[in-house]
């Protein structure tokens, strides 16, 4: 439920990227036959455990791309991302979020296709999910989905 809540954040709350599911799909699908999304969520914690530890934006970003935080049994390192969307929630600075996303993209450039410019989309909603100070939801269109 946390993942679906994160994916639909832009529909339900005002933010810097107000869109609908159709716009998300249009931005994420470069060709009609390449439409297989992988979703992830961070922080993934057990009930009650999230109140004991504060999470930073770099940790959220790192966890978001971690295969253990994906909702599919697919490892992104076995493919390449065509497009990605990262939806952050909470009291965060957009500059810090964009810097972290740029950092991840440059460190892992071999996992992103180079023939689609600006293929990472970032959104920020200032309203955090219930029970957390901040979270991030990841939506990725990756060729790694072929291993399922």
Automatic annotation (TrEMBL):
Any single GO BP term: mitotic sister chromatid segregation
Residue span, Tubulin/FtsZ 2-layer sandwich domain: 17-148
Coarse class of the protein's main subcellular location: cytoplasm
Pfam entry (one): Tubulin_C
Tagged with keyword Nucleotide-binding: yes
GO CC terms in record: microtubule
GO MF term list: GTP binding; GTPase activity; structural constituent of cytoskeleton
Compartments, as annotated in UniProt: Cytoplasm, Cytoskeleton
Domain of life assignment: Eukaryota
Keywords noted in UniProt: Cytoplasm, Cytoskeleton, GTP-binding, Microtubule, Nucleotide-binding
Keyword hit for Nucleotide-binding: yes
Stated family: Belongs to the tubulin family.
UniProt subunit comment: Dimer of alpha and beta chains. A typical microtubule is a hollow water-filled tube with an outer diameter of 25 nm and an inner diameter of 15 nM. Alpha-beta heterodimers associate head-to-tail to form protofilaments running lengthwise along the microtubule wall with the beta-tubulin subunit facing the microtubule plus end conferring a structural polarity. Microtubules usually have 13 protofilaments but different protofilament numbers can be found in some organisms and specialized cells.
Name of protein: Beta-tubulin
Species, as recorded: Scedosporium dehoogii
Lineage: Eukaryota, Fungi, Dikarya, Ascomycota, Pezizomycotina
